[in-house]
């Protein structure tokens, strides 16, 4: 087995004790030990790879040389100590006993040249009691072993690395600090790991990792991050300004992957990290509860898919994240996450995404899209989200000029039994033609701001100037208040309010800006089945001027 082969199979050993250094495509082994099973032990040093059978006390392989029966003999070293056992080229090469000048045992076990190897027992030079029994690497205590005091009592029974007791909490602060395969908690200090030779961060070799904390301004040159197959990982926290790809831009392939980590619960990404990364993959994470991404992250990533995460409860994406990609524009999808309750996107997030799809999330309660989210999107899908109580769309969302084939889009919300409040702020859906709200049994309030659904028919061709859109609010028995701002629904040819027994207030436009209204300029108004309605109707001057085209039918409380 070569070192290159070993580097690709580090994670296959059940309990390796390897010191690691980073290489271009991941971590490589410096030295250490690993057991393949209860009897086979692997030792790796700078210049050799040894495989030994500790039960049969035989060397099976040294580098590419397959073990053969060796001569048993006695050789002297330069200090006058003698070794009795397997010898090759007049040097220790296998199992044997090392004696001092007075023929007192110093060591019994595997030995290659002048260093203890694989497994053995060392003895105190004064009283000749057992001093250490266990695994070795290149003469150093390494792996599992027991240390004794001069009276033969156990001082430490456990794990060793590089002749010291194993430390599972590791902090990397400089280029000289080393990783190892037994790390459970890994902290990267602020400003660390920014050398030019850091191209890939692949943590596959750290199979016992439970907690990963990366500070600020780290891994500046890395363009690929792989956190995959870590069965014990519970937390991933990444500070701000990390993984900036050296400012090389989105044309160079970059990716972040968190996959197949069954215990991970939280993923936190700080401000501007992964700024130029083009891919973000989250898969097979059955325990993940929180995804929190700060502002200006993954600017060049156009596709976001959060799916099949059975424990997920909250998704929070900060300002202008996933926002700037125009080369690989795709969709934001949140689907099949049965425990998710909250989706929040900050100002300008997913700015250039073409679609927003939220479906099959039965416990989702809040969807909050702040100013400028999904500016270029032509689709908003809310499906099988029966627990949804609040939909808040900030200003200038879904506001880009559409292609000709999408010129008359309609937002339809129906059969959402938990939805209580719909808020759409100024300038959102500004080039969409209509809004239809139907069979929303818990809905109490609808607020639509200025210049929403404001596709202007007067700017199209003769055929396009014919109003085609609709505003529909029907079969919503609990809705009490409807507010619509000025210059909204310019392309609507119909405004239907039907079966709204609790409706008390309608406000369309603003009396303060009567000359700028133009809301529903060509629509007929139909009010039906609204018994008990107490009318508060503030129609602006623009609506009054359209009164000749306005029809009102069957409103018993109005006497009409």
Give the topology, please.
Elements: H1 3-7, E1 17-23, E2 26-35, E3 40-44, E4 49-53, E5 58-62, E6 65-66, E7 71-76, E8 82-88, E9 91-99, E10 105-112, E11 115-123, E12 130-137, E13 140-148, E14 154-161, E15 164-165, E16 169-172, E17 179-180, E18 185-188, E19 200-202, E20 211-214, E21 224-228, E22 235-238, E23 255-259, E24 266-269, E25 280-283, E26 290-293, E27 304-307, E28 314-317, E29 331-335, E30 342-345, E31 355-359, E32 366-369, E33 379-383, E34 390-393, E35 410-414, E36 421-424, E37 434-438, E38 445-448, E39 469-474, E40 481-484, E41 492-498, E42 505-508, E43 524-528, E44 537-539, H2 541-545
Parallel strand pairs: 16-18, 18-20, 19-21, 20-22, 21-23, 22-24, 23-25, 24-26, 26-28, 27-29, 28-30, 29-31, 30-32, 31-33, 32-34, 34-36, 35-37, 36-38, 37-39, 38-40, 39-41, 40-42, 41-43, 42-44
Antiparallel strand pairs: 1-2, 1-17, 2-3, 3-4, 4-5, 5-6, 7-8, 8-9, 9-10, 10-11, 11-12, 12-13, 13-14, 14-15
What report would you give on this structure?
The protein starts with a helix and ends in a 15-residue tail after the last helix. It is elongated and about 110 Å long. The protein is an all-beta fold and 560 residues long. Residues 460-466 and 532-560 have low confidence and may be disordered. The strands form six sheets. A 15-stranded parallel beta sheet has the order 16-18-20-22-24-26-28-30-32-34-36-38-40-42-44. The protein has a nine-stranded antiparallel beta sheet with strand order 7-8-9-10-11-12-13-14-15, with no helix packed on it. Helices cover 2% and strands 40% of the residues. The protein is built from two helices and 44 strands. The longest helix has 5 residues, at 3-7.
């Amino acid at each position: 087995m070569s070192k290159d082969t070993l580097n690709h199979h580090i994670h296959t050993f059940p309990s390796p004790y390897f010191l690691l250094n980073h290489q271009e495509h991941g971590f490589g082994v410096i030295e250490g030990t690993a057991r393949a099973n209860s009897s086979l032990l692997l030792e790796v040093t700078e210049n050799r790879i040894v495989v030994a059978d500790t039960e049969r006390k035989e060397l099976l392989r040294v580098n590419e040389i397959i073990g053969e029966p060796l001569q048993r003999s006695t050789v002297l070293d330069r200090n006058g100590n003698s070794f009795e056992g397997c010898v090759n080229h007049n040097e220790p090469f296998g199992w044997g006993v090392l004696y001092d000048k007075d023929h007192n045992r110093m060591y019994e076990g595997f030995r290659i040249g002048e260093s203890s190897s694989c497994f053995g027992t060392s003895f105190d030079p004064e009283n000749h009691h057992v001093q250490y029994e266990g695994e070795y690497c290149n003469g150093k205590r390494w792996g599992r072993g027991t240390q004794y005091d001069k009276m033969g009592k156990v001082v430490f029974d456990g794990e060793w690395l590089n002749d010291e007791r194993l430390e599972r909490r590791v902090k990397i602060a400089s280029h000289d600090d080393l990783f190892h395969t037994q790390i459970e908690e890994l902290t990267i200090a602020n400003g660390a790991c920014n050398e030019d030779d850091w191209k890939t961060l692949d943590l596959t070799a750290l199979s016992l990792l439970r907690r990963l904390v990366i500070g600020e301004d780290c891994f500046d040159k890395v363009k690929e991050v792989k956190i995959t197959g870590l069965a014990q990982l519970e937390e991933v926290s990444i500070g701000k300004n990390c993984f900036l790809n050296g400012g090389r831009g989105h044309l160079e392939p970059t990716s972040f992957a968190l996959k197949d980590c069954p215990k991970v619960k939280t993923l936190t990404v700080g401000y501007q990290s992964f700024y130029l990364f083009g891919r973000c993959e989250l898969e097979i994470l059955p325990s993940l509860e929180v995804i929190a991404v700060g502002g200006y992250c993954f600017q060049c990533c156009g596709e976001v898919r959060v799916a099949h995460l059975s424990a997920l409860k909250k998704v929070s994406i900060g300002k202008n994240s996933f926002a700037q990609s125009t080369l690989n524009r795709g969709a934001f999808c949140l689907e099949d996450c049965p425990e998710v309750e909250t989706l929040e996107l900050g100002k300008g997030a997913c700015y250039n995404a073409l679609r927003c799809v939220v479906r099959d999330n039965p416990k989702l309660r809040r969807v909050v899209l702040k100013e400028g989210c999904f500016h270029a999107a032509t689709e908003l899908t809310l499906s099988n989200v029966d627990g949804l109580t609040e939909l808040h769309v900030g200003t200038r969302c879904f506001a880009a000029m559409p292609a000709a084939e999408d010129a008359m889009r309609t937002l339809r919300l129906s059969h959402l039994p938990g939805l209580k409040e719909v808020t759409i702020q100024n300038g959102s859906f500004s080039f969409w033609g209509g809004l239809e709200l139907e069979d929303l049994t818990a809905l109490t309030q609808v607020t639509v701001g200025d210049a929403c659904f404001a596709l202007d028919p007067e700017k199209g061709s003769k055929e396009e100037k014919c109003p085609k859109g609709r505003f529909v609010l029907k079969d919503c028995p609990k809705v009490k208040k409807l507010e619509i701002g000025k210059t909204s629904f310019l392309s609507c040819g119909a405004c239907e309010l039907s079966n709204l027994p609790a409706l008390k207030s309608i406000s369309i436009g603003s009396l303060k800006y009567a000359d700028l209204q133009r809301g529903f300029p060509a629509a007929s108004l139909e009010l039906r089945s609204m018994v008990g309605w107490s009318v508060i109707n503030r129609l602006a001057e623009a609506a009054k001027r359209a009164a000749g085209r306005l029809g009102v039918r069957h409103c018993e409380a109005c006497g009409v």
